[in-house]
Amino acid sequence: MKSLFKYLHNYKKESVLAPLFKLLEASFELFVPIVISKIIDVAIPSGNNSMIIKMGLILVGLALVGMVAAITAQFFAAKAATGFSAELREAVFSHIQTFDFTVLDKIGTSTLITRMTSDINQLQNGVNMVLRLFLRSPIVVFGAMIMAFTIDVKSALVFVVAIPLLAIVVFGIMLITMPLYKRVQGNLDKVLGHTRENLTGVRVIRAFRLEGKEFKDFEFDNRILTKAQTSVARFSSLSSPLTYVIVNGAIIALLYIGGVRVNIGSLSQGQVVAIVNYMSQILVELIKFADLIVLITKAASCADRVEAVLKTENAKPENARLENEKAAYGTGNGEDKDTGTGSNKDYICFDHVSLKYEGAGDETLTDMNFTVRKGETVGIIGGTGSGKTSLVNMIPGFYHATSGTIYFEGKPLNSMDPGELTGKVGMVPQKAVLFKGTIKSNLLWGNDNATDEQLWKALDIAQATEVVKGKEGELEAVVEQNGRNFSGGQKQRLTIARALVGDPEILILDDSASALDYATDAALRKAVSGIKDTTVFIVSQRASSIRNADKIIVLDDGEIVGIGTNEELLESCEVYREIYYSQYEK
Fold first, then answer.
1. Segment 255-286, tens digit of pLDDT
2. Annotation: CATH topology of 2-311
3. pTM beyond 0.70, yes or no
């Protein structure tokens, strides 16, 4: 949790001024019982109306000064808390952007959303309340006790018994509830994940009429969350009644002792009222402090969860050290080294690469061993679940090889800067994703500095020119969230254009033409093949999409069962023949 305090560094002034003004407010509040005591003991018995008015005006002045101090303290506390949460949220979001797919799969999207929203909001509330009350409440409690001792030592001994009892109640509840709040936030992650899954797959759920089943599953997760929240609420709710019981018991003791001492002439009625007022102040402040402890407990649990995200790093593959050594010793002369599996002109080389996902039982890809030259078009085909997408996701470094080495221009992929690598790759994933904004703002993701001429050129290659010209405003046409005002084929063409705007050295089309008709698909492939010096990987279920590729890689159950041209594979690869002749007549 301490590591999060650095996000308050820009708000040092506010973090100091907020509690100082609260202490100022508290100090004025401690004078109120003394003034009331003077009115009861001096002004009223003597019938001095001017003194009563004077003391009344002093009370009003104390209230006004206290109010100004409280408002000022609240302003500084709110500024520090909101600034802290904004910087922390930005830091968490930036750190999440560095995660590779393995970490994202492991943590889970719903958990990350909860930690960026709910958890950081709890931290914001915690910081705000700590700056306002963490010093104020103890100062009022101990200040009231000291003031009570200045009035009468024997009566004030009640405070010595009451305050430790109250401390035991407050801190005991805190120790019990802290782990319970962590459990609540974990259950909230599950509910959020279930909700997100249902909203994302609402069409599928309705298509199979499984609303009832999903509702039951959600109800089950929600019931667990409710049970956890109820359990922690039971303990938290004990704070106020126990505090009231102890403080009211102390007030009864004070009235009894005060009454006895008034009878014997050791105390005046005004002094008894002042001591009781101090006990009432302690009651109010300890109730606030108990609520603050509950809030701090929640914030501490959330801080641990947020800190865990910030401490999470991408896992380095087991062979990273060896690869870095190879890179250091193999490129000392400034020339590309021989990868050992082909000539030194190989652009991309998979050297006996295997991939196993986090938590998976078996390898997804086994012994991937092939080379690709610069400017080649490589087709990747295979049955569903054969590992085609997993293979191309390793090229931009989304997933790291669990064994073997991937070389790019003679350098091990793991030794390269991720930003440098992804800057060379244009990726068009299976699911076409557009972002809210305009067509132009979406295309500029490929290259912020692209001119309109470059955008239209990319659109022309992607066969998306007619899509854009058919929209009002053309490049400035509005794109709704997730591109829901475009059809599947239109979204695919626009995402291809977005990748092309960046003029990538490597273009990966991961089954990104599945929604296109055969004529548009053919025109797209012809246009892409005309791009010079770009290495293209085409993942497809259609033999027509990859039949003219320079090299075709055939996958089956995570293994390469054939590499070659269309003609070579028709003669030598049974798996390829089955796929090909299922789409073409012999």
1. 888 888 888 877 788 888 888 888 778 777 77
2. ABC transporter transmembrane region fold (1.20.1560)
3. no
